[in-house]
């Protein structure tokens, strides 16, 4: 089979664009690239500046180029008897067909394949399928991205990598892939069909170290064979090793392993303090700024404590990102430097693990909603099973509807058959649980920590010592988990999984199975199912009516400061219910009664089925349906709890998006103050809890965290240690903070014309002197949009790109990648960019903070907290708004200096930091940068001068 890999550069999209360059790489049957053809093409109109910016192709390049007809005379013979390939091939194919048509040739009739499909299937864990990014991760030289001949060659090399990867897969996997695509008459199906026939002829098949079970090839064997890290009959490796000796040995090995390793004062202090807290059963609040190396700061003492005492230490992070970073970076390093065997296990929420039983059922039955996309996702996962040892969805790059697919095959408690499941010994969730059971240190996340508390400690292994990283999020996560949050979609999704229409859904599937089973009760049970259908439709109608009416209570205008664009928020007060509330309660009551009836009928039927033997084929269906009935029961309880509004310590509110109306409705009920629950559930129960983060103190004091997390009792008992670590960086030399003292101020979330003009002008001047490399943090999305267009215009002539969150489309991580990859750009971000963004080195030289990050005071939770403080005769602004804003401000500031070599500037455009009585808390809480305030027009010369002093220009 001969491939022709095609790429066009064009002046626009299909209907109106013209071809300006063509690239074609021919791959022969022996997989050698026999030729690469490239040519400019003369278009009928000038090339738009945007296209020149992207491709580097100018009008001069194409002025003497051949016309389309001449180029096609050379191209058409090369397309004889080939399989046409492209990266996102539909784009190039539509241009090819219209060019063939315009030049009087017959349309292309051959097969067409897309390298993006191949990449997804062969490399399901790649973080990006974009040509440039893939070339980098494969080490493919791609000299001139967005130039057709270079793109065609890079695409050809990537296709060859995919074909090599397919060669290494076992025959069984190829058979499964071929089955997935054989239904549709697609070219992908044709390709896998041919590949399968070829492979079946070969005598030697690659098998690798795979396990073959029930027609799937897996990278793992049985988890029951996993042994603990040390033999229980051996002596404890720490019997005669003091902590000091252990640390000396570890440091020596660190120096051998990492040539540039040097011990850091802050990290050494942290290691000692964490060890003291764990050994003396005390709680510890420890603030460790960027660059401390806090992961090792708590993991080294945690491992020592755990192995020495034989008791687990639990570590909890806020983000899954940090959990994965510990798994990929820190634990492999510790395995090399700790002088005895130990085990650290990652344990996430159950929905992150694949349920092999559900997956097998789904692909065998081809239970797909959108065949093309679902087949592709299933194919990705079949190949991923031959690579993954954890079955964790974070390893997969599931685009488009992949997330919906995952939800139907994720592990969950209610549909788990436990030991009765044929997949039990291979199960990823039970493997993770078993690994956590035998591990010394278990790394989980805040959500799972609270889910475990709510489930009566059934989810995590027992522990007495706990380290909480990113602890400034603990209060928020606690509120979410100890309260409730329910989406409109959650209910409709559960209902449609049970019954979408007479052919789709779990109940129709069960009814179909009953009809063919011929058991006596089959017709009786089918009758029950038939009676449940109309009830489910009634529930859906009632729920839609209820959410419509709840949505109609929302204020019409959207105040963008309460959240992102179009977000609507309404607080409901138990003592002051809306006028129509009785009508809404009647709907909730009807909903409750119908649900109760469905659950009663359904459970009775499922129990009868379980009691009757020989129902093995419907076992898994019965389990899944029973799980969905449990979901309905929990929906019933939650809606009743919300509509009852009976608890004075809970804040009730609604949120929705103005564009999606009631379909986007969410119900929230969150405790106003979680400190007493945290005290009772954690600080009173556990022997030692270490809380760490880069931002725990306000104005060098921990009181805000102590009050909010319920640590006052520990202070009285003398069980709380607090430590503020010295900064590892030389902030006075590395960071300059400037405040333009004559800058206009802003009221509300929207800037007036004068403010916006001055801000755009100042940002543009600063961006020119820092050559882009600038992150601008906003507190409101509205203001970001006000600045985006005029700033973009101001910087076009300087060749500095402006990227705006929510304006460009694309996720946060994509925007950050684009920012890092481009030589000169300015990135505008709102709330989610204030923390967790890591852009070390030259890519970020300047950070601009437009407003101090106060939370909107009209958010229901903030309002209720303020009322509670007022009732206690405290000042909500100083006790709540200022400390919260200071912590976010410190998080924002922390984006700038990420390594000991970074130098940078922070501009604070909010003059309240120097004019107001509370401004000093913001500035004194920072780790000591050089601070200067000046007139706006003196700022840019000062920045230029400071950058030159440090040799950054």
UniProtKB/TrEMBL annotation:
Q: Which key words are in the record?
A: ATP-binding, Exonuclease, Helicase, Hydrolase, Nuclease, Nucleotide-binding
What CDD domains does the record point to?
Answer: DEDDh
One Pfam short name: Helicase_C_2
- GO biological process terms on file: DNA replication
Q: Which domain of life is it from?
A: Bacteria
Report the residue ranges that make up the Helicase C-terminal domain in this protein: 762-939
Q: Which Gene3D superfamilies match?
A: P-loop containing nucleotide triphosphate hydrolases, Ribonuclease H-like superfamily/Ribonuclease H
User: What does it catalyze?
Assistant: ATP + H2O = ADP + phosphate + H(+)
Q: Which InterPro entries match?
A: ATP-dep_Helicase_C, DEAD/DEAH_box_helicase_dom, DinG, DinG/Rad3-like, DnaQ, Helic_SF1/SF2_ATP-bd_DinG/Rad3, Helicase_ATP-bd, Helicase_C-like
EC code: 3.1.-.-
Residues where ATP binds: 288-295
Instruction: Please report, in chain numbering, the residue ranges of the motif DEAH box.
Output: 469-472
Q: Name one GO molecular function term.
A: DNA-directed DNA polymerase activity
Q: Which residues form the Helicase ATP-binding domain?
A: 253-524
Cofactor(s) for this UniProt protein: [4Fe-4S] cluster
Task: Write down the PROSITE patterns for this protein, in alphabetical order.
Answer: HELICASE_ATP_BIND_2, HELICASE_CTER
Stated family: Belongs to the helicase family. DinG subfamily. Type 2 sub-subfamily.
Q: What is this protein called?
A: 3'-5' exonuclease DinG
- The scientific name of the source species is Paenibacillus monticola
């Amino acid at each position: 089979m001969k491939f022709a890999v095609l790429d066009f550069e064009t002046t626009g999209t299909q209907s109106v664009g013209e071809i300006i360059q063509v690239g074609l790489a021919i791959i022969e049957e022996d997989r050698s690239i026999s030729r690469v053809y490239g040519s400019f093409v003369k278009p009928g109109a000038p090339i738009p500046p945007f296209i020149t910016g992207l491709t580097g192709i100018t009008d001069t390049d194409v002025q003497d180029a051949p016309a389309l007809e001449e180029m096609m005379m050379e191209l058409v013979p090369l397309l004889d008897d080939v399989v046409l390939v492209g990266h996102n091939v539909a784009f190039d194919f539509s241009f090819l067909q219209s060019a063939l048509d315009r030049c009087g040739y017959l349309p292309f009739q051959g097969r067409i394949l897309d390298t993006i499909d191949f990449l997804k299937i062969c490399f399901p864990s790649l973080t990006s399928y974009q040509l440039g990014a893939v070339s980098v991760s494969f080490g493919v030289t791609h000299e001139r991205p967005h130039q057709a001949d270079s793109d065609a060659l890079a695409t050809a090399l990537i296709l060859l990598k995919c074909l090599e990867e397919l060669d290494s897969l076992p025959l069984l996997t190829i058979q499964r892939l071929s089955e997935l695509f054989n239904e549709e008459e697609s070219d992908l199906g044709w390709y896998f069909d041919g590949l399968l026939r070829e492979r079946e002829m070969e005598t030697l098949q690659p098998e690798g170290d795979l396990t073959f079970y029930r027609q799937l090839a897996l990278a793992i064997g049985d988890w029951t064979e996993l042994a603990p890290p040390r033999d229980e009959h051996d002596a404890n490796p720490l019997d005669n090793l003091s902590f000091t000796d252990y640390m000396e040995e570890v440091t020596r090995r660190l120096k051998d392993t990492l040539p540039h390793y040097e011990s850091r004062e802050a990290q050494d202090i942290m290691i000692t303090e964490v060890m003291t807290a764990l050994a003396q059963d005390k709680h510890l609040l420890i603030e460790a700024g960027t660059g401390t190396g806090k992961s090792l700061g708590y993991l080294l003492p945690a491992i020592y404590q755990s192995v020495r005492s034989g008791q687990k230490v639990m570590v909890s992070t806020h983000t899954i990102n940090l959990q994965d970073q510990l798994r990929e970076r820190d634990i492999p390093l510790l395995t090399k430097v700790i002088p005895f065997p130990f085990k650290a296990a990652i344990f996430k929420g159950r929905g992150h693990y694949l349920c092999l039983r559900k997956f097998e059922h789904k692909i065998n039955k081809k239970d797909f909603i959108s065949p093309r996309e679902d087949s592709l996702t299933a194919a990705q996962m079949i190949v991923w099973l031959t690579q993954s040892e954890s079955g964790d969805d974070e390893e997969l790059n599931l685009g488009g509807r992949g997330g919906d697919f995952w939800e139907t095959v994720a592990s969950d408690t209610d549909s788990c058959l436990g030991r009765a499941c044929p997949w039990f010994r291979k199960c990823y969730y039970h493997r993770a649980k078993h690994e956590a059971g035998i591990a010394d240190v278990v790394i989980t996340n805040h959500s799972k920590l609270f889910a475990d508390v709510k489930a009566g400690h059934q989810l995590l292994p027992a522990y007495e010592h706990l380290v909480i990283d990113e602890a400034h999020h603990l209060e928020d996560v606690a509120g979410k988990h100890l309260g409730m949050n329910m989406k409109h979609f959650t209910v409709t999704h559960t209902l449609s999984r049970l019954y979408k229409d007479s052919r789709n859904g779990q109940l129709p599937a069960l009814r179909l199975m009953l009809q063919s089973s011929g058991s006596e009760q089959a017709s009786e049970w089918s009758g029950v199912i038939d009676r449940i259908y109309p009830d489910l439709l009634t529930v859906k109608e009632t729920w839609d009516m209820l959410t419509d009416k709840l949505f109609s209570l929302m204020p019409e205008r959207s105040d963008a400061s309460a959240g992102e664009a179009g977000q609507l928020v309404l607080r409901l007060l138990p003592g002051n219910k809306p006028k129509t509330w009785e009508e809404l309660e009647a709907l909730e009551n009807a909903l409750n009664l119908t649900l109760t009836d469905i659950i009663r009928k359904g459970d009775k039927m499922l129990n009868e089925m379980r009691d009757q033997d020989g129902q093995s084929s419907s076992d898994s269906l019965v389990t899944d349906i029973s799980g969905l009935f449990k979901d309905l029961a929990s929906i019933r309880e939650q809606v009743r709890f919300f509509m009852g509004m009976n608890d004075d310590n809970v804040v009730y509110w609604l949120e929705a998006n103005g564009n999606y109306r009631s379909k986007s409705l969410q119900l929230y009920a969150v405790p106003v103050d979680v400190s007493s629950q945290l005290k009772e559930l954690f600080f009173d129960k556990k022997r030692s809890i270490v809380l760490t983060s880069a931002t725990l103190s306000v104005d060098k004091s921990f009181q805000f965290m102590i009050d909010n997390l319920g640590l006052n009792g520990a202070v009285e008992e003398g069980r709380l240690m607090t430590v503020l670590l010295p900064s590892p960086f030389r902030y006075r030399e590395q960071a300059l903070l400037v405040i333009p003292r004559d800058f206009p101020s802003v009221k509300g979330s929207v800037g007036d014309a004068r403010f916006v003009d001055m801000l755009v002008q100042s940002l543009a001047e600063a961006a020119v002197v820092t050559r882009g490399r600038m992150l601008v943090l906003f507190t409101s999305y509205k203001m970001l949009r006000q600045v985006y267009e005029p700033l973009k215009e101001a910087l076009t002539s300087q060749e500095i790109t402006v990227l705006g969150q929510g304006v460009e489309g694309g996720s946060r991580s994509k925007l950050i990648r684009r920012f890092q990859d481009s030589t000169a750009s300015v990135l505008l971000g709102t709330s989610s960019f204030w923390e967790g963004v890591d852009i070390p080195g030259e890519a970020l030289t300047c950070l601009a903070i437009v407003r101090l990050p106060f939370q909107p005071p009209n958010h229901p939770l903030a309002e209720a907290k303020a009322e509670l403080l007022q009732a206690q005769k405290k000042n909500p602004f100083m006790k709540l708004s200022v400390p919260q804003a200071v912590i976010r401000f410190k998080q924002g500031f922390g984006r700038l200096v990420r390594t000991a070599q970074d130098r940078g500037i922070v501009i604070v455009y909010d003059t309240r930091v120097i004019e107001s009585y509370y401004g000093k808390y913001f500035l004194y809480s920072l780790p000591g940068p050089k601070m200067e305030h000046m007139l706006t027009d003196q700022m840019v010369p000062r920045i230029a001068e400071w950058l030159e002093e440090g040799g950054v220009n």
